């Protein structure tokens, strides 16, 4: 009989909420007294009441049942006022600091349920400054149960624009970044990664609590940061960025390319692209790479005498190639700018170098020069950030081959691409990365674009060259050519070129343009008159390690052939 009565009791719907005035007269004083007793700030023995915790838990569970079972939701002002009276909202900040974790956690759960009850209820909770700040403060609790409930409530609150705005004002992101740093610097990140590799459920009760907390923190951070504005991002203290970004980047590297198991769906909602977007947004405030001093750039190229630079600008600039002899020994002793870049590279085996390029580097999506709103760019590239290298855009694998057709008398060699550069994007990952390594062994050159976006030292040199030569921009490409092979066929460039032989040796043939008129961009060489290089003439150069040459406009380059090539690692050493 008692069992049947208990079963009927559990099956009954929760009673309707009392009116607001009745709540303020009868319920609120009782809850206030109980909350004051449960407050950690009033934990003296004289104020302890054995019934206070029971009253608070009983009321909060009943309110939670009302918010989660009543359908459809009542969004009228009077209904919301009965469901969430002002007196109840005023109690939440006190409940969040209760010395009873069950009470504080239940309070956060009620707030989370209210934010999901309806959009109006969400805005009501978000508009209460005390509730929002109380939730953010609860993130710093020593009780993992309270922290977990608060994280869920913050995530629920972030489902509305008003909620996200109020969370930013309450410094929720700063608190989350600090909490993430404290937890993630332990083994929690490894626990998350290992769970993904095995496909196990990080939310399972059998998993460590820290792994669950990290997953929740990441979810909330990704949501708030990826929906923020540049103004809000600038409010984050720099020291928090410097501490948190390396950990986020480490986590992204570990989960990159890994599919998030389905059983993670109920607690981990972001993708690797979402995390890449978060890292990108946080990185925008980091200091730009320092520009190399102009005098150091000039001295590194032309020596200490300023007359050498002036002579170059008067006689050679846009008129004739200019060869600068040098060696690695000279670079190490006298060339502070370029030697620092050489030292940042770690020479290893060919396979390791190619792995560092093909598997560790990511795509650099093009940014339109007239793009003024970074948020527009982020929305367009949302699913592309952090993707593997894209063939044609970031990297090319090509080889110059001789043609025997008599109809092509003006061409001695033609560039052959290893991958078809068609309409479909080719990502260099997995099998394609292995194919690139095999192509290199078969004589193909690996050409990597956008080194100024991938290395801080290259970016600093590029910026310095911009100022020194008065150019709007300077790009940097890297070419890895195996011994005895030729990557690019005879061609011309529509811009001035500064070539620096980092390692190994290459042979060049350079000829003057047969016409004083600049060819159109990407105009085929067959449309130009016959040049000296086709007659066996032209300037013959062999660049050894450390050698540099400046190629001006109006020159046709008859290609580079690698010789005795020792390949360095292209991943810069960690900054000290």
UniProtKB/TrEMBL annotation:
Keywords: Dioxygenase, Iron, Metal-binding, Nucleus, Oxidoreductase, Transcription, Transcription regulation. Its EC number is 1.14.11.-. GO terms for cellular component: nucleolus. It comes from the Eukaryota. Its cofactor is Fe(2+). Residues 472-512 form the JmjC domain. Its main location: nucleus. PANTHER family: BIFUNCTIONAL LYSINE-SPECIFIC DEMETHYLASE AND HISTIDYL-HYDROXYLASE, MINA53 MYC INDUCED NUCLEAR ANTIGEN. Belongs to the ROX family. This is Bifunctional lysine-specific demethylase and histidyl-hydroxylase. It comes from Musa troglodytarum.
């Amino acid at each position: 009989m008692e069992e049947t009565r208990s079963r009927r009791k559990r099956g009954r719907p929760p009673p309707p909420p009392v009116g607001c005035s009745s709540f303020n007269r009868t319920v609120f004083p009782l809850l206030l007294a109980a909350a004051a007793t449960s407050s950690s700030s009033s934990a003296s023995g004289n104020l302890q009441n054995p019934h206070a915790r029971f009253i608070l838990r009983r009321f909060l569970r009943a309110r939670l049942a009302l918010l989660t079972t009543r359908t459809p939701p009542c969004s009228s002002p009077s209904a919301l006022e009965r469901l969430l009276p002002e007196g109840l909202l005023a109690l939440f900040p006190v409940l969040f600091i209760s010395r009873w974790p069950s009470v504080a956690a239940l309070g956060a759960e009620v707030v989370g349920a209210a934010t999901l009850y309806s959009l109006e209820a969400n805005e009501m909770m978000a508009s209460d400054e005390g509730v929002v700040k109380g939730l953010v403060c609860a993130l710093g609790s020593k009780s993992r149960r309270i922290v977990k409930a608060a994280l869920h409530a913050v995530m629920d609150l972030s489902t509305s624009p008003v909620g996200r705005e109020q969370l930013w004002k309450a410094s929720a992101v700063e608190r989350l970044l600090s909490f993430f740093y404290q937890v993630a610097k332990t083994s929690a990140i490894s626990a998350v990664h290992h769970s993904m590799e095995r496909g196990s459920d990080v939310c399972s009760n059998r998993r460590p609590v820290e792994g669950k907390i990290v997953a929740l923190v990441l979810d909330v951070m990704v949501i708030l940061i990826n929906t923020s504005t540049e103004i809000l991002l600038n409010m984050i203290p720099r020291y928090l960025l410097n501490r948190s970004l390396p950990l986020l980047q480490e986590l992204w590297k570990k989960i990159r390319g890994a599919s998030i198991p389905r059983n993670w769906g109920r607690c981990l909602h972001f993708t690797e692209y979402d995390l890449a977007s978060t890292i990108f947004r946080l990185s925008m405030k980091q200091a730009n790479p320092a520009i190399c001093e102009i005098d150091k750039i000039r001295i590194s190229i032309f020596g200490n005498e300023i007359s050498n630079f002036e002579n170059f600008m008067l006689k050679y600039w846009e008129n004739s190639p200019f060869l600068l002899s040098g060696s690695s020994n000279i670079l190490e002793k006298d060339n502070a700018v370029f030697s620092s870049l050489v030292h940042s590279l770690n020479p290893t085996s060919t396979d390791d170098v190619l792995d560092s390029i093909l598997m560790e580097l990511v795509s650099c999506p093009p940014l339109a020069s007239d793009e003024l709103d970074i948020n527009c760019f982020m929305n367009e590239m949302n699913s592309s950030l952090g993707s593997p290298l894209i063939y044609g855009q970031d990297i090319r694998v090509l080889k110059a081959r001789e043609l025997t057709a008599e109809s092509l008398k003006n061409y001695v060699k033609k560039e052959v691409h290893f991958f078809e550069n068609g309409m479909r994007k080719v990502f260099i990952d997995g099998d394609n990365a292995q194919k690139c390594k095999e192509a290199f062994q078969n004589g193909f050159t690996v050409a990597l674009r956008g080194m100024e976006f991938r290395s801080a030292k290259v970016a600093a040199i590029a910026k310095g060259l911009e100022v020194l030569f008065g150019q709007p921009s300077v790009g940097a490409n890297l070419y890895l050519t195996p011994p005895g092979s030729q990557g690019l066929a005879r061609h011309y460039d529509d811009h001035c070129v500064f070539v620096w032989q980092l390692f190994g040796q290459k042979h060049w043939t350079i000829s003057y343009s047969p016409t004083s008129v600049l060819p159109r961009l990407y105009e085929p060489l067959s449309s130009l008159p016959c040049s000296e290089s086709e007659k066996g003439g032209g300037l013959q150069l062999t660049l050894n390690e450390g050698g540099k040459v400046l190629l001006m406009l109006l020159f046709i380059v008859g290609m580079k052939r690698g010789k005795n090539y020792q390949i360095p690692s292209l991943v810069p050493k960690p900054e000290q």
